[in-house]
Amino acid sequence: MQTTYSNEPTPPHVAAMGDHFTVTLHFSTDEMRVLGAGLAPIIMWLATFLNTLISLRTGWAERDNGRGHLTRQSVDADFWYWSLNDLHSHLLPHLRGLRDAASRAHHGAGGSINNLSLALGVAKSTAQYRRDQVVGNPPDNYERWATDGVPQPPAVNLTQDID
Known about the structure:
The protein is α+β, with helices and mostly antiparallel strands. The chain has helices spanning 29-35, 39-58, 77-108, 113-120, 124-135, 141-148, and strands at residues 2-6, 22-26, 60-64, 70-74. It has a domain at 76-163. Helix 2 crosses helix 3, helix 3 packs across helix 6 (141-148) and helix 4 (113-120) crosses helix 5. The two termini are 29 Å apart.
């Protein structure tokens, strides 16, 4: 995967909003085969992450006005519902599964507790505990999703606590 950034000219339909920043991700054919249809929701959740961050800092969101043009609008309860649903019910559990799969792979590759604690930014005892929790249990749906791409895990109950 290769990532590029550019400051391309602003399209005419958003010219009043100033310049924009473009991020392009380039995937090889093999990488696309591995990611498959699962890439689309990941990109949507990444967009939600960035849109929520922007809205928290500015108090507005750019939304399609129904005619293919983006307009700035004040954020409302529906926007926050959408953000929370994507972040809490989808992005966080998938990130946790990805982190757990990477922790399991780190252990399998002979990674040390010291190295894991540095990577996670936690004390060695916390890193040891977290690794023990991961490798001492079979992978859950989200960890299997990270390693195999399937099965697609169900949405998380909003009352469930995600660490």
